[in-house]
């Protein structure tokens, strides 16, 4: 490994998940099983991928941990918050994502992971009844203070040198950005202290608390949370990395691949209809129109930035794009994403593409959660702060400041990710994107 400014990954790293539902319990169980040699970290770039460094005779393909200092899974300590008191074993069993044989070997370890009481506001997740919550009458500022104390206590009790906080809980109702509240840290803090519940969501309490405690924060849902100027300012001020938003798992991952292929081949698109059926807790929450609106905004923006209708008006200026999510309990975590894409080619002749992706949502999300947590820690040790656009590879609606547009093309995102890792490892960033 070359000499770099990245601090070594020494000591224990705490990964605190907001939410101990299907995604988090699958992630936690998987990490514990993999540590015992009873599973494989399939889908995780930090654990499996190799990246080229150097050119010509100096070219070599190395794992991430050979390029930059990374913690081993043995050095990871796992914890969570939730609004339901089930421990990680109970949550894993109820989620019905993993088979019993992939849970019971780590049953004792899972039972010891009990969630801290969560920040709960029924107006933000109307389909859920929180029974394990912090005082719902407390102000947003007081709740944030309590979350900070949770982080401090977790670090002390588990001997953690560093902590990363990842939101893996439900999608909140949509909150439009309000410049009078969200555009400066001063007005944002004033709103928290005034208990402005219409503009300050529960997820914002976790994000602010994490940043204040020097812990990188990753937003794994499409919530309006850290994609506001107040959070950007606060993260820069505290020298803390943040990234979001919304884990890019099934249908959107396919969109970032297919849309890039259409643009590369200069094939036109007339319409893109997407629908999902999902039966887990996420599906239940998204069955409420106000919560679905948040997810819809995240999903709709993906293909526009890839296809670039302004640059190619003959091909992409008038696309009809529709997204639907339907709650269907019999499927549990086995989500089905179905796409109908109307494209056209030579001389404008129409064609259709049908995609039916029968995926396991939490199985796809778990390795993303791991990678984002480990890369968030890497960014902190590398002295990076604020929005980490190089992590857009993992996210449906990549965060960016007001002066830039997100990159959604999966292959361009991967190039950006690899270049960031190369640079932190002391190598040249030798790939470019158009």
- Judged by helices, strands and strand pairing, the structural class is alpha/beta
| CA radius of gyration | 21 Å
Shape: globular
- Estimated share of beta-strand residues: 15-25%
List low-pLDDT spans: none
Structural commentary:
- The chain is an alpha/beta fold.
- It has 2 domains: 12-247 and 363-424, 3-Layer(aba) Sandwich (Rossmann fold), CATH 3.40.50.720; 251-360, 2-Layer Sandwich (Dihydrodipicolinate Reductase, domain 2).
- 38% of the residues lie in helices and 19% in strands.
- The chain has 17 helices and 13 strands.
- The chain has helices spanning 22-35, 45-48, 64-67, 88-95, 107-112, 140-158, 179-182, 185-193, 202-212, 229-237, 251-265, 281-286, 289-300, 302-307, 313-316, 361-381, 410-424, and strands at residues 12-18, 50-53, 60-63, 76-82, 116-117, 160-167, 217-219, 241-244, 268-278, 320-327, 334-344, 350-360, 386-387.
- A 7-stranded parallel beta sheet has the order 5-4-1-6-7-8-13, with helices on both faces. The protein has a 4-stranded mixed beta sheet with strand order 10-9-11-12. The chain has a two-stranded antiparallel sheet with strand order 2-3.
- A hairpin with a 6-residue loop joins β2 (50-53) and β3 (60-63).
- The longest helix has 21 residues, at 361-381.
- It is globular and about 65 Å long.
């Amino acid at each position: 490994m070359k000499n770099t400014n990245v601090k070594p990954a020494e000591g224990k790293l705490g990964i605190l998940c907001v939410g101990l539902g299907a995604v988090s319990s699958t992630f936690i169980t998987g990490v514990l099983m993999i540590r015992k040699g009873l599973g494989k970290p399939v889908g995780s770039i930090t654990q499996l991928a190799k990246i080229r460094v150097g050119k010509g005779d100096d070219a070599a393909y190395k794992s991430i941990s050979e390029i930059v200092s990374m913690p081993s899974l043995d050095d990871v300590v796992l914890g969570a918050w939730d609004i339901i008191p089930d421990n990680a074993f109970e949550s894993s069993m109820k989620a019905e994502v993993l088979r019993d044989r992939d849970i019971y070997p780590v049953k004792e370890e899972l039972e010891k992971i009990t969630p801290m009481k969560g920040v709960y506001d029924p107006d933000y997740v109307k389909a859920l009844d929180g029974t394990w919550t912090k005082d719902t009458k407390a102000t947003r500022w007081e709740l944030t203070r309590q979350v900070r104390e949770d982080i401090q206590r977790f670090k002390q009790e588990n001997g953690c040198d560093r902590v990363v906080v990842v939101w893996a809980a439900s999608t909140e109702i949509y909150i439009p950005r309000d410049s009078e509240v969200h555009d400066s840290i001063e007005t944002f803090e004033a709103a928290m202290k005034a208990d402005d519940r219409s503009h300050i969501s529960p997820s914002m309490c976790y994000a602010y608390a994490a940043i204040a405690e020097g812990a990188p924060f990753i937003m794994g849902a499409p919530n309006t949370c850290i994609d506001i100027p107040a959070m950007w300012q606060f993260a820069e001020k505290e020298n803390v990395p943040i990234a979001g938003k919304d884990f890019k798992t099934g249908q959107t991952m396919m969109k970032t691949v297919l849309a890039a292929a259409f643009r590369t081949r200069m094939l036109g698109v007339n319409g893109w209809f997407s629908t999902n059926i999902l039966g887990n807790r996420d599906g239940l929450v998204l069955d409420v129109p106000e919560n679905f609106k948040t997810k819809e905004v995240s999903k709709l923006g993906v293909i526009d930035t890839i296809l670039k209708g302004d640059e190619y008006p003959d091909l992409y200026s008038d696309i009809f794009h529709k997204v639907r999510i339907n709650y269907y309990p019999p499927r549990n975590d086995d989500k089905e994403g179905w796409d109908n894409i109307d494209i056209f080619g030579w001389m404008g002749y129409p064609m259709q593409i049908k995609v039916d992706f029968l995926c396991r949502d939490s199985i796809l999300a778990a390795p993303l959660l791991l990678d984002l947590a480990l890369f968030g820690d890497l960014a902190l040790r590398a002295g990076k702060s604020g929005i980490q656009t190089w992590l857009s590879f993992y996210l449906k609606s990549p965060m960016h400041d007001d002066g830039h547009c997100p990159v959604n093309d999966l292959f361009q995102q991967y190039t950006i990710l690899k270049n960031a890792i190369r640079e932190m490892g002391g190598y040249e960033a030798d790939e470019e994107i158009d």
